[in-house]
Amino acid sequence: MTHSLPVPSAEVPPQGGIRVRGLAKRFGERLAVEGLTFDVRPGEVFGLLGPNGAGKTTTVRMLTGLLRPSEGDAEVWGHSVTRDGESLRKVVGLLTEQPGLYDRLTARENLRFFMKLHELDEATAWPRALHYLERFGLGGRENEACGGFSKGMRQKLAIVRTLVHDPRVIFLDEPTSGLDPESARTVRDAVAELASEGRTIVLCSHNLSEVERLCERVAVVRRRLLALGPVRELRRSGQALDVRVEGDAEVFRPALARLPFAPNVLLEGGRLRVMLADESQAPEVVACLVGAGARVHSVVPSQRPLEEVYLDLLKDGVA
Ligand SMILES: Nc1ncnc2c1ncn2[C@@H]1O[C@H](COP(=O)(O)OP(=O)(O)OP(=O)(O)O)[C@@H](O)[C@H]1O
C-alpha cells in the first residue's frame, strides 16, 4: 500500500515552539539525519517516531544544543541551535533514555547538583523540585540515596530533574519505559498538564498506543522525514472496509484484485478487510463484490491502528 507523504507545513510557529529547517547530521561517511523540516507549536505534544537507528536521538541532540548540525538550522523557542547554544540550554529540558543519576547521592543532592550545573537560584528551583517530587509520588523520599530507588522511582526522579529549570520545550525519550501502569499514567497525565501550560513537548517513543493517546501530531523518520501530520490523518491514510459476506469470503478475492486500484485484502474471522487509499473507493469495492455475486451482510468502515500504518510507512518509505 502506498501512502502520500504529507508535505511539511511552511507555517512558522507564532511564538515559541520549534522550527526545523533542512537539518542534517553526518558522522564520517554515515548520514544519520538528512533534510529534516518541520514545526512544533507551543502547547503541542509532538511524537518523533522511527525504528532503531532512525536518527531520533541525533535529532534531539541537535535540537538541545548537544550536537552541531552538519547542515540546516532549527529554532527552539526562538533560539537558534547553531548560534545560541548558551541561551538554548536554559529553555530546553531533556530526559534521556538512561536516567544518569548519582547512586551515592540522595534525590535532593542529585537535584541540587543539576541546579548548580544550570546556575539556578536554589531559592526558586528547590520549591519547584519539591512540587514535582510530590507530583510524581516521591514526596518525602528526597533524603534517600538514589542507589536504593527502584527503576521507576529513578525514572520519575530523572523527569523531575528535567523540569527543575522550568523549561519551555521538553524532549522526552521513552519517558514511561520501565514504569508500572500506574506510574506510567502519572507521567502521561503530567505530560498533558505540562503541554496545557503552553510548553512544547517532543516525545520519542516506540510505544505507539502511548503516542496515540498523547500526541496530536507525529513525524515518522528514518534518516529523512517519511511522514508528518496529525495522528488521525495518518490513521485515515490507513482506512479499511470490513465486509461480511454470505458463505466463503475467499472466493471474492480475485474479483477485488481486478479493481483498477487492486486493494490489499485480508481475510479476518470470515470477514474481508479491504484496505483503501481513500474513502471514495468504498462504493466501488461494494459494487465489485455484488457484481461478483456476493450477498453482503455488512460493510463497516474502520481505521487501522497507528501501529499498522506506521509499519506500512516504514515498508514503503524510501530511505
Ligand atoms: N556519535 C556517533 N558517531 C557515529 N555514529 C553515530 C553517532 N551517534 C549516532 N550515530 C549513528 O547515527 C544513526 C542514528 O542513530 P540514533 O541514535 O540517532 O537513532 P535512534 O533513532 O535514536 O535509535 P534508537 O531508537 O535505537 O534509540 C545510527 O546509524 C547511529 O549508529
Automatic annotation (TrEMBL):
Pfam families membership: ABC_tran
ABC transporter domain mapped to chain residues: 18-248
Organism domain of life: Bacteria
CDD domains xrefs: ABC_DR_subfamily_A
MF terms in GO: ATP binding
Keywords of this entry: ATP-binding, Nucleotide-binding, Transport
InterPro entries reported for this sequence: AAA+_ATPase, ABC_transporter-like_ATP-bd, ABC_transporter-like_CS, P-loop_NTPase
Regions that span the bilayer: none
Listed PANTHER family: ABC TRANSPORTER, ATP-BINDING PROTEIN (PTHR43335:SF4)
Family designation: Belongs to the ABC transporter superfamily.
The protein, known as: ABC transporter ATP-binding protein
